[in-house]
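During the reporting period the student researcher (J.K.) took over the structure-prediction task from the postdoctoral fellow and processed the backlog of single-chain submissions. One of the processed entries is reproduced below for the supervisory committee.
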Amino acid sequence: MSAYKIREINEGGSIRLAKELCHYEGFVPLSRHHCQRLFRQGFLTLREFSSECGNHRYILPESSDDLIVNTGELIVLSNERMRFEAKYRRVSESTRNDGVAPPCFKSLNIDGETHYFGEMQTRILSLLHQAALRGEPWQNGKRLLQEAGSESFTLSNIFKHKPIWREIIESDKRGSYRLKGDFFPATKRE
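J.K. obtained the following structure tokens:
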């Protein structure tokens, strides 16, 4: 879209704003204030916004229609999600009775390298962990996928872009799986 890039020019102690018509492409980041209005009203109209990295301000030309943002169009970028989770990480309601939070499988450090997992992958890992805590570590793969809400037919499809999964999950070669190694709760280990 076309938008005016606004620059501040310092001229001997006074600041002058300069507009330059340019092409803007990318996501339009929303401020906290914008998000509050969006969630309260269900939509938001914008004429001014910042660039993704926040170092430039843009204004739509008067001949352009307002940007209308609906909650269904909202995208949370992964770096923002990780920033938010790091700042506001909280113990979930699934905290065990001993007050220790269960492990979060969204990211795992394996041999000094951090591996990030998607929502479905995280569900599978969490289900296997819960099963191990119940003393039932071996879980049928098809039932596990169904319980996680996946429409996939195999665990290998769920983890096809994460080959490290074979370092975390063990197969009995007959359709059952369990966590292995350091990921298996030691108190219930067979």
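The committee noted the following: The CA atoms of residues 140 and 176 lie 4 Å apart.
J.K. will present the remaining backlog at the next meeting.
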